[in-house]
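Dear colleagues,

As part of the handover before I leave the project, I'm documenting each prediction I ran so the next person doesn't have to rerun anything. This entry is a single chain, and its sequence is reproduced below.
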Amino acid sequence: MSDDLIIILTAGLVATACGLLGPFLVVRRQALMGDAVSHAVLPGIVAVFVLFGTRAPLPVILGAAAFAIVCVLLVDALRRSGLVRGDAAIALVFPALFALGVLGIDRYASSVHLDLDATIYGEIAFAPFRVWELGDMRLARSVVLLGVIAVVNLLLIAVFWKELRVTSFDPMFATTAGVSPAIIARGLLIAVAITAVTAFESVGAILVVTMLIVPAAAAWLLVDRMGPMIAVSLVIGWVSAVAGHLIAIRLDASIAGAMGLVATGCFCVALVFAPRHGLIARALLRGANRRAAATT
């Protein structure tokens, strides 16, 4: 398998794993959770080093995942308390956890280079060099891990499709139907946290947040139903992966940056040309309404 193909597959699998969950975050107005998780994992990295004295990627990722889940649960608990709104809950929790990580580094690991590359500063160009050897086979670690995460997310969506959809669009009806919006929301956010932390090592936090939110936001403008929204989000994610890689090679630029820029370009196209919610469609509708009002 060529290096270019590994990079594209890695980005495409990130787009798939994130694209399955992103539309639910957008509909639920929880788009900042991916960014919050990317900051909240720092104390987990420090804790692994302090407790076990290792900077190996797998233990670091597990520690980061644990604190990502803590972040999700704390945000959800604050939001459900009714004392603060959802965006304020996110803004309260992740700076506190990030500050805890900074203090931990200053107190216990100031002279040690912690492997932040394994979580926050991952670089997709290095994906072909991180391999597992099984006999004569060399498997790209990112492709295997992200493939597993994508399959697990797909199974999660398939099994809890009705519950996720009804709690996203009408939580009051879900409650009367016997479905707990709180349990479904926590499960979704934990899946987001695990997906994000697993992908950080391979592609970095910026591309993970991009793939979680930007394709889903573009799909939200283009379609109104959840099924098509997920499908459009996946298509935009893969287009961003392939086109972004080609652009990066042509310009000799950052691969993740190019992919993020393509995704943002897709959103801008949707923002302008979406048939019902785009800027042009809304301008035409306002003009038609003014003409109708003038003739009455």
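The chain has a mean pLDDT of 86. Residues 226-251 form the longest helix (26 residues).

All the best with the project,
I.
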